[in-house]
Amino acid sequence: MRVQVVDHPLVAHKVSVLRDKNTTSPVFRQLTEELVTLLAYEATREVRTVDVEVETPVALTTGTAFAKPTPLVVPIMRAGLGMLEGMTRLVPTAEVGFLGMARNEETLDIITYAERLPADLTGRQVFVLDPMLATGGTLVEAIKFLFDRGADDVTCICLIAAPEGIARLESEHGADDRVHLVLASLDERLDEKSYIVPGLGDAGDRLYGLAH
Ligand SMILES: O=P(O)(O)OC[C@H]1O[C@H](OP(=O)(O)OP(=O)(O)O)[C@H](O)[C@@H]1O
Ligand SMILES: O=c1cc[nH]c(=O)[nH]1
Ligand SMILES: [Mg+2]
């Protein structure tokens, strides 16, 4: 498993504004999209391509196109939906599948309440979008789901992760070079309620309002 923290002043600045508890939902949504676009640039570095012939006004040349089957983008609802627009702006030909997962805040069990994905993911490169990697329970479930359907490799794009969540993913997929994680920030720790510290609070609530 490869973990990449994108070290760039634009990313660091946008994450700082996102963390601020006074940042409003409209600004939070805008920054989330902008951050995904910056992270997607790194996350798609190994997307499979084929050579194509291009005729410029001057000459024939060889260009690049995405290989088939086309990449699949999977936002994890709710909070991952806030990252979808930023990702599809950069990869407009990607297909999109949906996973609805929620963490029970008392037991930390993961409930999968919705799924709309192709039945067979054989040969697919999958990009999972979820802003927060806390205990890792959600991403472990999501990755299992995608590999069970036959996905070739899974790249998770997250804004903020806790070391505990990365350790959980490492324990499941440490030796697996099909799993890749791209982050804007690796934070300090989880608190007693398994929220990321310093984090940004509940990403779903900050994007869309209170869930309860
Ligand atoms: O690493 P974990 O401990 O599993 O926690 C991370 C999950 O928690 C948040 O979703 P949440 O369950 O709050 O659902 P929501 O997006 O509907 O708010 C977040 O978007 C992740 O999916
Ligand atoms: O800090 C956290 C942890 C889980 N989910 C969130 O949205 N935020
Ligand atoms: Mg939430």
Automatic annotation (TrEMBL):
| Record-listed 5-phospho-alpha-D-ribose 1-diphosphate binding positions | 78, 103, 130-138, 202
- GO MF, any single term: uracil phosphoribosyltransferase activity
Q: Pathway, per UniProt?
A: Pyrimidine metabolism; UMP biosynthesis via salvage pathway; UMP from uracil: step 1/1
Q: Could you list the residue ranges that cross the membrane?
A: none
Ranges where the Phosphoribosyltransferase domain occurs: 5-209
- UniProt entry tagged with the keyword Kinase: no
Binding of uracil occurs at: 196, 201-203
> What note does UniProt attach to the cofactor annotation?
Binds 1 Mg(2+) ion per subunit. The magnesium is bound as Mg-PRPP.
According to the record, the protein's activity is controlled as follows: Allosterically activated by GTP.
Catalytic reaction list: UMP + diphosphate = 5-phospho-alpha-D-ribose 1-diphosphate + uracil
- What are the alphabetically sorted keywords of the record? Allosteric enzyme, Glycosyltransferase, GTP-binding, Magnesium, Nucleotide-binding, Transferase
HAMAP family documented for this protein: Upp_B
NCBIfam families found in the cross-reference section = PRK00129.1, upp
Q: What is this protein called?
A: Uracil phosphoribosyltransferase
Q: Give the species this sequence originates from.
A: Arthrobacter halodurans
This protein's encoding gene: upp
